[in-house]
Design brief:
This protein has 182 residues and is mostly helical. It contains 5 helices and 3 strands.
Length: 182
C-alpha cells in the first residue's frame, strides 16, 4: 500500500521532471528541434520533436498498462495498447515544438487525474510486459518521470543518467515494427 508521502513524492517528481524536460525542449528552435543525431544510438538518434512525440505515445501506453493492472492485478499487458496521441512519432517532424509540448501537457493532465482517482492499495497492483517484466502500479508511474529525465538529457546532448532496464538488456528500436503501446 502506498503512503500519502510516497504518492506526494511521485506527483512532485512527475511535475519536476516534466517541467524541466519541457523547459529544455521549448528552449530549442524549431529548426534545431528537427535535427536528428546520426552518430547516436537508439532513441538518442531522434530529433527533439521525435522524442516529444515518443514521450506522448509512451504516456498513453504506461497509462493503459496501469489501468489494466487496476482492472486485473497481475495482468499481462503485452497486448494492451494506449490510445494513439494526436501527433504520433511518425508525424513529429511535421509539427512544431509548441504543439508537441501542449500534447505532453494534456497527456500528463490525464495521468495525474488517474493517479488522483487511485486508492493507496491500488498502487501495489501489478502488470507484466515482456520488455520491462512485472511492475507494480507505483513502479509503472515512476517510469514516467525517469523516462522524462532520460529524454531531457538526450535533448540537452548529455549522456542519459537514467537507463531503463529492459528484459533481455537491449533497447528496441520503436521506429521499426510494431510500436510499444500501440
Amino acid at each position: 500500500m502506498a503512503s500519502a508521502d510516497s504518492i506526494r513524492e511521485l506527483l512532485d517528481k512527475m511535475a519536476e521532471q516534466r517541467d524541466a524536460l519541457l523547459a529544455e525542449a521549448e528552449a530549442v528552435s524549431d529548426a534545431d528541434a528537427s535535427v536528428q543525431a546520426p552518430d547516436a544510438e537508439g532513441e538518442g538518434q531522434w530529433s527533439v520533436k521525435q522524442q516529444l512525440a515518443h514521450l506522448a505515445e509512451m504516456e498513453t501506453s504506461y497509462r493503459a498498462w496501469v489501468q489494466r493492472a487496476l482492472e486485473e492485478d497481475g495482468a499481462d499487458v503485452s497486448r494492451v495498447r494506449g490510445e494513439p496521441p494526436a501527433i504520433p512519432l511518425t508525424a513529429a517532424q511535421e509539427h512544431g515544438v509548441p504543439e508537441l509540448a501542449a500534447q505532453l501537457r494534456e497527456q500528463r493532465a490525464r495521468t495525474i487525474a488517474l493517479i488522483g482517482s487511485l486508492a493507496p492499495e491500488q498502487f501495489g497492483h501489478t502488470a507484466s510486459q515482456p520488455m520491462f517484466g512485472s511492475l507494480t502500479v507505483m513502479q509503472w508511474l515512476r517510469s514516467y518521470y525517469r523516462h522524462d529525465r532520460m529524454h531531457r538529457d538526450q535533448i540537452a546532448g548529455r549522456e542519459p543518467e537514467y537507463k531503463p532496464k529492459f528484459v533481455g538488456g537491449k533497447e528496441p528500436d520503436q521506429r521499426r515494427g510494431p510500436r510499444i503501446g500501440g
